[in-house]
Amino acid sequence: QVQLVESGGGLVQAGGSLILSCAASGSIFGINAMGWYRQAPGKQRELVATITSGGRTNYADSVKGRFTISRDNAKNTVYLQMNSLKPEDTGVYYCNAYIYRLSTGGYDYWGQGTQVTVSS
Question: For 63-98, how does the pLDDT look when each residue is reduced to its tens digit (9 = 90+)?
């Protein structure tokens, strides 16, 4: 019952930057954390970065120092600023929202994904 819409993907040269955004709508009162995951062609989905409602962040080692996740709790929107992009950053980036409710416990919601392609 939560909808996530990503935007900001595209084609960029190695060393360049992109910013992704994800807006949540629907039954959003219980969102505890949001994040970004990515999946390269033929590979498994992997965590990129997460941020809690209190602002605590977590990053994959491969993106530390290059990517920054932020969140606007009032708008239920999460951003991913990606700098110094590398070809290995290429993949489909998925927005994630984690919601805990007494009635259902914890649950993950996913966006449709946005393509990020980094050329060398």
Answer: 999 999 999 878 889 999 999 999 999 999 999 999
Taking only the tens place, the pLDDT of each residue in 1-37 is 889 999 999 999 999 999 999 999 987 777 789 999 9
Residue that is written with structure tokens 């969102």 in the block: 31
Alpha-carbon distances, residue 117 vs 7, 69, 102 (angstroms): 14, 19, 40
The DSSP string of the chain is: -EEEEEE--EEEETT--EEEEEEEEES-TTEEEEEEEEE-TTS--EEEEEEETT--EEE-GGGTTTEEEEEETTTTEEEEEE-S--GGG-EEEEEEEEEEETTTEEEEEE---EEEEEE-
Q: How far is CA 89 from CA 21, 50, 81, 113, in A?
A: 17, 17, 13, 14
One-letter identity of residue 20: L
